[in-house]
Amino acid sequence: MLMRFDYLVFIGRFEPFHNGHHAVVRHALGLAAKVIILVGSAGKPRSTRNPWNANEREVMIRAAVGAEADRLLIRPLSDHLYNETAWISLVQRQVAAAIADDGGAADARVGLVGRDKDASSYYLREFPQWELCNVQHCEVLSATEIRDHLFSADEGGQLLIKANVPPPVAAMLEAFRRTPGYAQLSREFTFLKNYRKAWDSAPYPPTFVTVDAVVVYSGHLLLVRRGAEPGKGLWALPGGFLGQDEHLIDAALRELREETRLKIPAPVLKGSLKAQRVFDHPDRSTRGRTITHAFHFEFASGDLPPVRGSDDADKAGWMPIAEALALEEQFFEDHYHIVQHFLGVA
């Protein structure tokens, strides 16, 4: 059968892969010889927004598609929250690599498939070299709604999940509910639900302001391990919420001292300030709209000053930069992207 495309590209997070995603893939397989699926938010730690790693989501997709799964070329796609150009470039490279590995021709007919449903679908217009195949709406629960039912653990919600995901995915989600990872995320889900509920009486949705410190000393990065929800056990930058009577830089220095007991005097730290930036991606925090101001302090050489965890951190320590950059899946929220930005590796 003559296909309209050699390859159709489908980009998504698939957290989880639901019937709407399945409908898009079935439609794409009717138009193209192969479908390249890029699994977004790869390399993220487990969270209530990203409960499954890229490999687990690939298993979901292949199980759901079944006999035609051999026509799928599935690749992970990392986020670049503060560098859209880098993300677009990565998409292009992953597609080119998938075609090359498949033995496809350099002039292969490539298209992009998806559903232009709202502002979140803006990325569909960022690849003008590929013809866009806009798929009609499929009435299913959103992935966000499915995750909410999954972690709420109400019986009615479990029935809704089964009605909105392919049977193999429903079986995988049921198995996931019996894992320690699910138990931790369920506790985090409850914490976040109560956290947001405390602000229900506010006259408008709150916007939180935080500060973070990126301290580099002799090729090492100062990190803390979170001791509480959300993100318990993940590595993070020393930081916290801005006090009502503080300047941003003073709040960053206070949090740095409280969480690491770093004894470098404030004037010395201020003199070593190399850069600062606001990080404001709308989805950067599961707690709600949270804008952080990050400060980059750098010391070229010298013995590493002693630090120890305290306050909200159960551990603080200096980590070689190369080691830290290899631990993307163990970083809290967007802290890995903040580090990437200041170290020039985004």
UniProtKB/TrEMBL annotation:
Name the UniProt record assigns to this protein: Bifunctional nicotinamide-nucleotide adenylyltransferase/Nudix hydroxylase
Names of required cofactors: Mg(2+)
Signal peptide: none
Residue ranges of domain Nudix hydrolase in the record: 206-342
SUPFAM superfamilies listed in its UniProt record: Nucleotidylyl transferase, Nudix
Keyword Chaperone: no
CDD domains in alphabetical order: NUDIX_NadM_like
EC number: 2.7.7.1, 3.6.1.-
GO MF, one example: hydrolase activity
Transmembrane portions of the chain: none
Keywords: Hydrolase, Nucleotidyltransferase, Transferase
One Pfam family linked to the record: CTP_transf_like
Source organism: Tahibacter amnicola
Domain of life: Bacteria
InterPro entries for this protein: Cyt_trans-like, NUDIX_hydrolase-like_dom_sf, NUDIX_hydrolase_CS, NUDIX_hydrolase_dom, Rossmann-like_a/b/a_fold
